[in-house]
Q: What sequence folds into this?
């Protein structure tokens, strides 16, 4: 069984999609053992609590030195024997110490079809604002492996979503979440969990 940690910063709808998928037996090779939040206000923490999933809050402002922030995260992951990490709406920057400790075992969900609308500063509603500003007719979501380049790791899965006339950033974000993010992330999570389970 692959032990999974989910890292969150906000509402946790992607975490909820993972929890629901796990309960529906769609992540047979993995088990969510820990949620790490970048702040103590994230509603995602309440979602974890409702499912009796242990959680930890690790705030970058408590560890201004990147290396110490990374090390605190790695120590916490090791404490829970975590094998893989899912970034689900996580907004803090992870440095080389964390990325190397979980080389090719960290996946992230990004709300666009990378390489469009990604990289530094492209997160949350901003991604959809830029897509609407550019006038794209199709957008979507991407799950990729995490490396030192923001949104730069190997692409694992993508799903296209139609942009509709009159879309606002909010309506587009919702459609991308419902039709892409919440489908792709559990699938990618199970595929990595299975790969790890087979190598252990
Ligand atoms: C959403 O914009 C999602 O696209 C991105 O992070 C934001 C919050 O997601 N991955 P969540 O509801 O906290 O999972």
A:
């Amino acid at each position: 069984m692959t032990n999974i940690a989910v890292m969150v910063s906000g509402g946790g709808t992607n975490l909820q999609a993972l929890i629901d998928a796990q309960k529906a037996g769609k992540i047979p090779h993995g088990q969510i053992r820990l949620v790490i939040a970048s702040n103590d206000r994230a509603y995602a923490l309440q979602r974890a609590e409702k499912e009796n999933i242990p959680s930890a809050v690790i705030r970058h402002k408590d560890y201004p030195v990147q290396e110490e922030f990374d090390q605190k995260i790695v120590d916490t992951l090791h404490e829970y024997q975590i094998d893989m990490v899912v970034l689900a709406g996580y907004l803090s920057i992870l440095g080389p110490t964390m990325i190397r400790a979980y080389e090719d075992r960290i996946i992230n969900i990004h709300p666009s079809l990378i390489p469009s609308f990604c990289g530094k500063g492209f997160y949350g509603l901003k991604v959809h604002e830029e897509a609407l500003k550019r006038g794209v007719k199709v957008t979507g979501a991407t799950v990729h492996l995490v490396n030192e380049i923001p949104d730069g790791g190997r692409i694992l899965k993508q799903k296209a979503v139609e942009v509709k006339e009159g879309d606002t950033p909010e309506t587009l974000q919702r459609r991308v979440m419902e039709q892409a993010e919440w489908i792709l992330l559990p699938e990618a999570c199970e595929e990595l969990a299975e790969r790890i389970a087979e190598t252990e």
User: Anything to note?
Assistant: The first helix runs from residue 13 to 23. The longest strand covers residues 30-37. The pocket of 5-O-phosphono-beta-D-ribofuranosylamine is lined by residues 8, 10-15, 44, 88-89, 109, 111, 124, 173, 177, 181 (CB under 6 Å). The chain has a mean pLDDT of 97.
